[in-house]
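Support request, please re-run this one:
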Amino acid sequence: MIKLCGFALSNYYNKVKFVLLEHGIAFEEVFVTPSQDNTLLEHSPLGKVPYLQTEDGDLCESQCIVEYLAARFPDKQIFSADPWLAAKEREMIFFVDVHLELTARNLYKEAFFGGTVSDGTKGHIEKLLMHHIAGFKRIAKLAPYLCGERFSVADTAGYVSLPLVGAATQAVYGRDFLLEAGIDWKSYVKTINARPAAQRVTEDRKAYIAASRPS
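Re-run finished. Output below.
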């Protein structure tokens, strides 16, 4: 059986988990946290999560994992059958994962973990995010899903990452850049959370956070 390795606080772990649950693909969860320990590096070259263990070996990077699942289980139709629509779903995922979340990740040290980010970094990231969010707004339909009226694999990325972008900018700048740009991610997330797979992802994340708090 496929093993998904990581932990429930990771949005990229949850992105893959959402795909697996949404499409009814059997898998086992294995708790792993990022580290530079050699035992982890043997499975994930940079010591990151998630990674997938299969009978053929290990596979890292969330989007590579999703692409593998789509190829291995073609009957699940993880991506749209139409080549153009599938390409647009991949485009949307790239915008969310790279242009939005990975850019905002530079703020997480201060936003979520009690550290500080330099004023120079804040200024640079603000400019990047404003530019990237403007581009995202040009392609995101939110009608009510990212790619239009139909739920798609792009929404597994949007669901787990857009809240982080909004929360991080609110915490660091005192302004939610997404809401400020007219991207109502809160209503969007509420729509996605009606899906059982999304509910499971959220419940497991909350349980992990609760269990991690000092007693």
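The chain has two domains: 2-76, 83-212. Residues 2 and 54 are 5 Å apart (CA to CA).
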